[in-house]
Amino acid sequence: MTDATSRSAAVDVDPEAACPIAPVVDIVFSRWTTPILWALHEYGRQRFVELERRITRITPKVLTQRLRQLERDGLVVRTYHPEVPPRVEYEISELGRSLAPLFATLAEWAAVNLDKVEEARVAYDAG
Amino acid sequence: MTDATSRSAAVDVDPEAACPIAPVVDIVFSRWTTPILWALHEYGRQRFVELERRITRITPKVLTQRLRQLERDGLVVRTYHPEVPPRVEYEISELGRSLAPLFATLAEWAAVNLDKVEEARVAYDAG
DNA sequence: CATAGTAGGTACCTAGAGGAAAGTAATGGA
DNA sequence: TCCATTACTTTCCTCTAGGTACCTACTATG
């Protein structure tokens, strides 16, 4: 196996079973993949260290793991330049770019509703 | 604390830092919260056992945990009927319903692009 | 000679989500 | 009397994402 990067080998481990969006969640949304995709989507092609500095607190190990996973899933394109200090560039693929409307919807929902969630929590914790 | 249900107490534990959609991911997308929200969104008000049967393989412990979390976040409304065998009904809240366009976008992306991801994986694993 | 800088790899450890199995209160029915 | 049902709770265990820390090759620069 290629791995340390790939997730569930089986395609239908149905925690989802009849929930058509669960597979997408598995591919696009996790603690670090979302910020990485967002950064590449917002700021264009970037080098490893740029991403590392932009995404605060991510460790190089995890950054490598997530980038490999995204590359394997076809969402990110990696370009290696065999120069003196090695140079690697990452950019979002066309498939990755197709997530744009999804990100827009998400950002909009966040802007409108995040504080409602916070209010709900306060109310719940009070009762 | 209320808990075993609440996540990160601090609001800005910035794994995200300047990624506006990371908080939403934390609230809406996880292995089980997504299928639960989807089931309530698709099939309307349901009892605990109905959800348990619909969402294959979920354990009662986890179902309770996720439902409590969703209730606290204001996405789900819980109604308790103190009857002989107790009866509890769950339904999506108005805030939860506002996720509908998001789910629609997700479902559409899945329908169009999931097999492209699969192709990319096959190609990657071959090279 | 030593250091810095790039893009990682590796070994080890922790924390938290989740799974398995059993228990609980209350009551109606066989 | 025993069993079933509902909506959980509790205990114990596993598994994996992620964190910490250190190592690698290569070269330019002081």
CATH homologous superfamily descriptor of chain A: Winged helix-like DNA-binding domain superfamily/Winged helix DNA-binding domain
Beta-strand portion of chain A reads 5-15%
Strand order of the largest sheet of chain A: 1-3-2
DSSP strand count of chain A = 3
End-to-end separation of chain A in angstroms reads: 51 Å
Count of individual helical segments of chain A: 6
Shape estimate of chain A = elongated
Q: Report the top-level CATH class of chain A.
A: Mainly Alpha
Under the CATH scheme, the architecture of chain A is: Orthogonal Bundle
Return Rg of chain A in Å.
17 Å
Category by helix and strand content of chain A: mainly alpha
CATH topology of chain A: Arc Repressor Mutant, subunit A
Q: Residue share in helices of chain A?
A: 40-55%
Low-confidence stretches of chain A: 1-13
Q: Which protein chains make the most extensive interface, counting residues with beta carbons within 8 Å of the other chain's beta carbons?
A: A-B, 58 and 58 residues
Question: What is the chain-wise order of helices and strands of chain A?
Answer: HHEHHEEHH
In this structure, how is the largest beta sheet of chain A organized? 3 strands, antiparallel
